[in-house]
Amino acid sequence: MRNSIHVTILLKAKKCVSGLVIMLSAFIINFGYAQNLNKTVSLPNIILINADDLGYGDLSCYGANLLNTPNIDKLASEGRRFTDAHSASAVCTPSRYALITGEYPIRHGNLNAPVFLKSKLVIDTQQETIASLLKKAGYATACVGKWHLGFGETEPVDWNKPLNPGPNELGFDYYYGVPVVNSHPPFVYVENHHVVGLVEDDPFVYGKKAKTQEVFEKMKLNAIGGADKAHELYVDEEVGTHLTSKALDWLKEQKDKPYFLYLATTNIHHPFTPASQFKGTSQCGIYGDFVHELDWIVGEVIKTVKEKGEEKNTLIIFTSDNGGMFNATGQKTWQLGHKLNGDLLGFKFDAWEGGHRVPFIAHWPGKIKAGEVSNQLICNVDMLATFASLTGQKLAKNQGIDSNNVLDAILGKTEEQIRESLLLAPLKKSHLSIRKGKWMYIGARGAGGFSSEKQGSHAFGGPKAIAFAGEINSDIENGKIKVDAPPAQLYNLEIDPNQTTNVYKDFPEIVNEMEAILNNYRNTSTR
User: Fold this and answer.
1) 328-335 and 285-307 helices, crossing angle to 10°
2) Which of 130, 134, 240, 371 could form a disulfide with 139 if both were Cys (CB 3.0 to 4.6 A apart)?
3) Nearest 5°: CA angle at 334, between 341 and 183?
4) Which of 41-50, 55-64, 313-322, 435-444 has the lowest mean pLDDT?
5) Which residue, among 255, 201, 258, has the nearest Cα to 228 in the 3D structure?
6) Beta partners for 408?
7) What does the alpha-carbon distance between residue 180 and residue 10 come to, in Å, rounded to a whole number?
8) Residue 113 pLDDT > 60, yes or no?
9) Residue range 326-348: average pLDDT?
10) List of residues 6+ apart from 405 with CB closer than 8 A
């Protein structure tokens, strides 16, 4: 009996020791993996610069010749420039939703249009974001610049109260910026949860005129007035330089942790209000001058990283939220000889390539070879999965479901296409589109964006705008859709990147395949 008890005790002891060994081994392996990750990747600092309305042809490294962007060009010459990068939407708010969450905007109740000053936060605080993901990996995180994703839980937003939830509840340790967009009220800065300069005895009131400089776009709006001090702090020509100063201050404060800065510039969204030192510096008017200010902003960021001695351990990604917009200033710029979106068909809001094919440059000395150009298909929705891979993390099954890990494409470790297909959303839901390989399918006629036929108007777009711009498309004649044009559009981008010829009638099997894919998305569940 004693021997039996003794044997039992020994067996239990061995099992306990074995369990401890397994647990200790697992700890050592995990610790070793973390140590190895830090040694090989060094948890690089990440700076994601998301320009506003910057078109595919707006940079000299992408072919512009009436303006110069030496700082952005330097990122490209020392890094990797993509020629087939896209925003998931041709519209600002849904594009930013995709970038931050790794989800197509169609999954948020068919989110397809911009939100404004009365709108609540459009991102669920339980969603993983690029900021919350990196925060879990030990990063200090900040968002500086244009937010444009709403605040709070109820509508209309009360700007006199704390603005939460907002960026801080989505993983950003710090937020400072323009809460909506620089062409719409309330024309203030927000820091974390509060309007900067707000005073209790001067509240914001809907429908009351804001005390800010009057520019064309603002004069037509019902502003949110009151809080004169807050409005007076907002000076149009100082927005770009002010936000840059705030971003640089935050960068300089970072010492003990890897950091992630999401710098969402207001350049080059209308109104075009560059600081005085940039006015008259380009050959294509105020539009080009505003691009020059953007290039200066990028240069200041690069300079600060270098001064901190962190260039070799910092991944800088530069891109845009959608294509260039053909508003009144854009039309004048075009007449001066500058093509906002290069030779691509269409403009911001459109399903055509000019609406969503954007500049995308990745820079990381020692990790990304200098001067490389890639034609790999990538999208801003891919940043979540890519950052997860970069930091050795795995996304939960219900998070970032549309995000692809394109880290190997960014680092130049593969020339293979990582993305099989891509959903692209213009302003109009009817024109939801699918890119698959060389094929681009648009589920309706025309652009799917702005459609005013009045030249010089803010919403000038569609066939009339294409005719004005001198662009060619087989469905369009004399600024009108042809009567016998197909009901939808199919383009072979491999041989026709400028979408001159709709081959819908020539490839019915491809059309059926693409339409089936679209229907799956149209029937998708939404948040």
Assistant:
1) 100
2) 134
3) 75
4) 41-50
5) 201
6) none
7) 69
8) yes
9) 98
10) 382, 385, 386, 388, 389, 418
Structural tokens at position 458: 């803010």
243 dihedral zone (left: phi>0; alpha: psi -120 to 50; beta): alpha
Structure tokens at 145: 């610049």
Comparing CA positions, the residue from 172, 232, 222 lying closest to residue 202 is 232
Q: How far apart are CA 452 and CA 409, in angstroms?
A: 39
- List of long-range contacts for 467-472, beta carbons under 8 Å, 24+ apart: 468/331, 469/326, 469/334, 471/345, 471/346, 471/498, 472/498, 472/500
Q: What are the strands, taking DSSP E only, across 428-492?
A: 433-436, 439-442, 476-477, 480-481, 489-492
How far, CA to CA in Å, does 125 sit from each of 72, 129, 164, 214, 507?
A: 34, 9, 11, 36, 44
Q: What does the DSSP 8-state code read for residue 168?
A: G
Residue in 316, 358, 349, 341 with CA at minimum distance from that of residue 76: 316
Name the residue among 119, 120, 117, 137 with its Cα closest to residue 128.
Answer: 137
Instruction: Please name the residues in contact with 323: beta carbons below 8 A apart, sequence gap of 6 or more.
Output: 53, 55, 56, 87, 90, 340, 341, 344, 346, 347, 348, 350, 353, 354, 355, 356, 357, 358
* Residue 435 CB coordination number (10 Å): 25
Which residues lie closer than 8 Å to 28 by C-beta, 6 or more apart?
Answer: none
What the block records as the tokens of 144 is 């500086």
Read off the pLDDT band of 209 (50, 70, 90): confident
What are residue 144's phi and psi, to 5 degrees? -125, 125
Reported confidence tier of residue 208, pLDDT bands at 50, 70, 90: confident
Question: How does pLDDT run across 6-54, given as a tens digit for each residue?
Answer: 433 333 443 443 444 333 333 333 333 333 444 344 799 999 999 999 9
Domains and CATH numbers, the chain: 41-419 (3.40.720.10), 429-522 (3.30.1120)
Burial of residue 160 (CB within 10 Å: 0-12, 13-18, 19+) is middle
Contact 144, 246 (CB under 8 A): yes
Cβ contact 82:417 at 8 Å: no
- Residue 351 · residue 424 · CB < 8 Å: yes
- Cα distance between the two ends of the chain: 65
**pLDDT value of residue 505:** 98
Q: Burial code of 223-257, b = ≥16 C-beta within 10 A, e = fewer?
A: bbbbbeebbebbebbebbbbbbebbbebbeebeee
pLDDT score of 217 = 54
> What residues are labeled active site?
92, 148
**Residues with Cβ < 8 Å from 118, sequence gap 6 or more?**
155, 156, 157, 206
Find how far residue 250's CA is from the centre of its chain. 21
Which position has the higher pLDDT, 23 or 318?
A: 318
As a whole number of angstroms, the distance between CA 72 and CA 58 comes to 11
Report d(CA 240, CA 227) in Å as an integer: 22
Q: What is the DSSP letter of 86?
A: E
